[in-house]
DNA sequence: CTTAGGG
DNA sequence: CCCTAAG
């Protein structure tokens, strides 16, 4: 709460500055450097607690208070502070120790080393750049970006950083702040720039605006002399470009070893590399952008492969099955594609033939068991399937056999349309590869086929087996029954059975 | 997880 | 067959 207000205070001056900057074109660098410092401070506090001594933060408020100016008059304050403090700056700048700096810090007067230090303080990492302008620019950019710093920064105000005698600040430190009031008062001055006091509003455009201002002002930023300067790429631009380059394939550092170098900086060795951008070469810390996450793999495919392996392995064992010979003769009934798998498909034909042998009830009780035994080997076993499909990741396509269709139809007639789970459990338990969705899909197809074109005895397209008309008729009948209106639950036994299934669970 | 339906 | 929105 009060936090927000505090942060707002930090923001205000800079905002003002930007505005006034135009007017103060000739003013000393200090003018905009000052606000930067504040920004930095707030940033640091949020991120690295250790880095910035809290007293630095104090400086700001004090600065204002000493002038007895309210925040709303920040512009005036700035103007007032500018000239008098300038002298002190240059001398004190021997070291970037902020605590030692009187009131403001001017990047302009810092040595490269100091700039690097400032850079470190700003970004939390070392830099090896020796380009003053670059450093300054980077630092500024970083500070500016801190505008987006969330309100979390404010934790600071608890630590008394608000010791100043400034009215507004005092108000905050008192605690329960009427955030509304406080913010409001601060908001006012800020609003001209289109920036609100609420962090949420800091998002994008405001920042961009900032950046623009700065880049635009770059021309007179150089007190160092150089009248003309090449526009250096922005930090973002650098990063983006780097990524691009790496994506382009030049991501292998070794590709251009000469560009990489280890630089010793303040006792630390940093690996950097040269990157040419916009005609200039800059040194940037080397960061491997190699994708670390595990490459995407098709797990499904692996699964398929595995099951397929099993199939192959299991197939030979088929011989153990004690199936009755007649089944094989019936294989003629099968789908063309399955012909070669007579051995493996036995199970299915098996059922076909068994069915007539058992009563309905018996079948339900027996089939799973019987098929289970055979299922062990033939379960997911399907020699017919080309191994090449294992890589597709797609489920192996297995043509529906007549026996399967019959079972499906039967199941539907027994349990009703839509009771796929039950049908699967009670009638398809052996066919592990048929999911409830498969059943549903197949039923949908059957229905479609039965309703539309009467292909009785005829062949569908080609390659697909012909479905016995009696089945189609059955399908049509069932379809009719279920679709129209509430289908009669005359089949009490169906209900009964469906209940019993719970035992299976 | 099971259904239903579209892709 | 896959995927996804529903319950």
TrEMBL record:
Top-level taxon of the source organism: Eukaryota
CDD domains, per database record: SANT_TRF (cd11660)
Regions that span the bilayer: none
Keywords: DNA-binding, Homeobox, Nucleus
Family annotation (InterPro entries): Myb_dom (IPR017930), SANT/Myb (IPR001005)
Localization of this protein: Nucleus
GO MF terms held by the record: DNA binding
Location of the Myb-like domain: 400-447
GO cellular component, one term: nucleus
SMART domains tied to this protein: SANT (SM00717)
Domain HTH myb-type positions: 394-451
Protein name: Homeobox-like domain superfamily
């Amino acid at each position: 709460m009060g936090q927000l207000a505090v942060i707002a205070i930090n923001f205000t001056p800079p905002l003002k500055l930007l505005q006034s900057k135009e007017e103060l074109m000739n003013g000393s660098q200090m003018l905009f450097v000052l606000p930067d410092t504040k920004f930095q401070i707030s940033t640091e506090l949020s991120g690295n607690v250790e880095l910035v001594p809290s007293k630095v933060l104090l400086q700001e408020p004090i600065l204002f208070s000493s002038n007895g100016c309210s925040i709303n008059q920040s512009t005036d304050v700035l103007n007032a502070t500018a000239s008098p403090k300038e002298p002190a700056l240059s001398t004190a700048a021997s070291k970037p120790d902020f605590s030692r700096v009187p009131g403001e810090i001017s990047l302009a007067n810092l040595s490269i080393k100091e700039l690097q230090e400032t850079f470190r303080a700003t970004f939390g990492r070392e830099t090896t750049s020796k380009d003053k302008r670059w450093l300054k620019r980077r630092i500024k950019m970083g500070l500016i970006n801190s505008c987006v710093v969330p309100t979390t920064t404010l934790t600071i105000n608890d630590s008394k950083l608000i010791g100043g005698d400034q009215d507004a600040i005092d108000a905050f430190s008192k605690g329960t702040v009427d955030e509304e009031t406080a913010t409001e008062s601060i908001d006012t001055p800020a609003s001209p720039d289109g920036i609100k006091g609420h962090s949420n509003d800091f998002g994008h455009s405001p920042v961009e605006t900032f950046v623009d201002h700065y880049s635009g002002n770059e021309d007179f930023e150089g007190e160092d002399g150089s009248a003309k300067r090449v526009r250096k790429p922005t930090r973002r631009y650098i990063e983006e470009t780097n990524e691009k380059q790496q994506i382009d394939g030049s991501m292998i550092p070794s590709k251009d070893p000469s560009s990489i170098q280890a630089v010793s900086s303040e006792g630390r060795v940093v690996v950097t590399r040269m990157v040419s951008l916009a005609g200039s070469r800059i040194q940037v810390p080397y960061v491997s952008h190699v994708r670390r996450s595990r490459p995407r793999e098709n797990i499904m495919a692996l699964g398929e492969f595995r099951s397929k392996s099993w199939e192959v392995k299991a197939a030979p064992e088929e011989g153990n099955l004690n199936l009755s010979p007649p089944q094989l003769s019936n294989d003629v009934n099968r789908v063309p594609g399955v012909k070669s798998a007579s051995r493996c498909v036995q199970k299915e034909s098996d059922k076909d033939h068994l069915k007539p042998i058992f009563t309905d009830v018996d079948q339900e009780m027996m089939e799973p068991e019987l098929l289970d035994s055979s299922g062990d080997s033939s379960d997911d076993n399907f020699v017919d399937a080309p191994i090449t499909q294992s890589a597709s990741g797609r489920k192996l396509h297995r043509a529906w056999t007549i026996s399967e269709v019959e079972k499906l139809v039967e199941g539907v007639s027994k349990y009703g349309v839509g009771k796929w789970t039950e049908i699967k459990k009670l009638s398809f338990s052996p066919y592990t590869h048929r999911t409830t969705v498969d059943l549903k899909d197949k039923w949908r197809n059957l229905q479609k086929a039965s309703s539309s074109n009467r292909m009785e005895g005829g062949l569908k397209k080609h390659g697909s087996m012909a479905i016995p008309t009696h089945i189609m008729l059955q399908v049509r009948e069932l379809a009719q029954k279920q679709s129209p209106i509430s289908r009669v639950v005359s089949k009490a036994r169906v209900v009964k059975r469906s209940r019993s299934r719970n035992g299976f669970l």
